[in-house]
Amino acid sequence: MTPAGEMPLGMLPFGETPFAACDDCGARRDAIGDVNAVPNHATCVACGGLLAIVPQRPGCTGRELADSLDTAAARAAGGVWRFGALVHPSRTPVSWPEGDTPLVTSPALSAFAGLDNLSLKHEGMNPTGSFKDRGMTVAITDAVARRARGSVRAVACASTGNTAASLAAYAARAGLPALVFVPAGNVASGKLAQATAYGARTLLVRADFDACLALAREASHSLGVYLANSVNPWRLEGQKTIAWELLAQRDWRAPDWIALPGGALGNTSAFGKALSEARALGLIDRVPRLLVVQAAGAAPFAAAFANGFRERVTVRAETVATAIRIGAPASWDRAVRAIRDTNGVVLAVDDAAILDAKAAVDAAGIGCEPASAASVAGVRAARARGLIAADDSVVAVLTGHLLKDPDTVMAYHAGGSARANAPIAIEPTIAAVDAILSSL
Ligand code: F0G
């Protein structure tokens, strides 16, 4: 284990106590005691910039820290809360628990991607079926503390579906009223069913995700609702643990690449922060490269990357991967920093490639939702372009569960694609079964 190296560009030092710092004006406030530190609208009260949490300095070496994360007590705390004060100092979190998701391999998927060894970090195995639970446990823990001080009427988010499902579940567990804003007609049925079933007031907004977010942000400024989108810095603190947990599962040996889908770019920002912090803490001795993958119809970040990030791009988004149907990513600047700090790459893959990769992930017995398959499609594309070598170690993050979007599955398998596997109606006879068996 090497000692902590030089702090990467843009990385803040650790604090004696956690504090919130503004990305834009640099204002700093005590993140726990001060109600204005992370207000309901989750942005800087001085200038409106995005806030980042600077966690408490652990005061030990990387080796000691890695060992302390491996104790029975740390493991018992659960995947997110195992990391303790590096995420949030609460000792009474609103937790399911979440995290502790598997890192799996599949020879079939390695072959599909053209790699010797592709690993998949399956975040669909979280309690509500997506990675959002990792950030939501932390944000709702913060919201409960704020509500005790009387400033929260309800918790709210704009969502393409998964954040809504997660918020609805955690709000229900905490006994908080919840409001979710989703784009009418563009949310996968599993996610809508979850938000409804968990009891959130689900608002089908006649607009796209970007307009939903603008509305939710306005409500958080004027109506006293606590905004739980990934502009909320506590969300990113929880989401950092995806990266940390996969590094721990690899015994803190960094892979060459980590691939993940990009939408609002909160997760990209969280991964950048997690990797910079892991390096600064001496947990890893080199930083993996991030491969952020967007759907071609919703790829403003990929377009800007191709242009050296000379300008901020917005598009009118359209893709079968509704989770990442986002044209104006909110966490833009910090995602740019994450790509620069990790020598990362941003790619776009078209819907056909996403559905093809999804069918491969599903047929491997692993399964994921369409947006998640963008990771695998992106790795395959990067390998085909020679960006990734066959013997590179690559972890692709599967962000959501197969059951999130059953309609896309059934539409794909009803069609004429090579992997189509439509259900077959039969008479209740043994001859009919035999005929099917003969065709296998
Ligand atoms: N994968 C899935 C399954 C998602 O649901 C999302 C985002 C992403 C990837 C992209 O993450 O936005 O941090 O870049 N879903 C949000 C939602 C927008 O509302 O559920 P990101």
Write structural notes for this entry.
The protein is an alpha/beta fold and 440 residues long. The chain has helices spanning 62-68, 72-76, 107-113, 132-148, 162-174, 189-198, 209-222, 233-249, 266-280, 300-306, 332-341, 351-363, 370-384, 406-414, 430-438, and strands spanning 19-22, 28-30, 51-54, 103-105, 118-122, 154-158, 178-183, 201-205, 225-227, 257-261, 289-295, 345-349, 394-398. Helix 4 crosses helix 5 (162-174), helix 5 (162-174) packs parallel to helix 6 and helix 9 packs across helix 11. 38% of the residues lie in helices and 14% in strands. The strands form 3 sheets. The protein has a 6-stranded mixed beta sheet, with helices on both faces. Strands 8-7-6-9 form a 4-stranded parallel beta sheet, sandwiched between helices. The chain has 2 domains: 103-130 and 234-414, Rossmann fold (3-Layer(aba) Sandwich), CATH 3.40.50.1100; 132-233, Rossmann fold. It binds ligand F0G. Ligand F0G binds next to helix 5, helix 9 and helix 13.
List the keywords.
15 helices; 440 residues; single chain; disordered N terminus; Rossmann fold; 4-stranded parallel beta sheet; 2 domains; alpha/beta; 14% strand; 6-stranded mixed beta sheet; binds ligand F0G
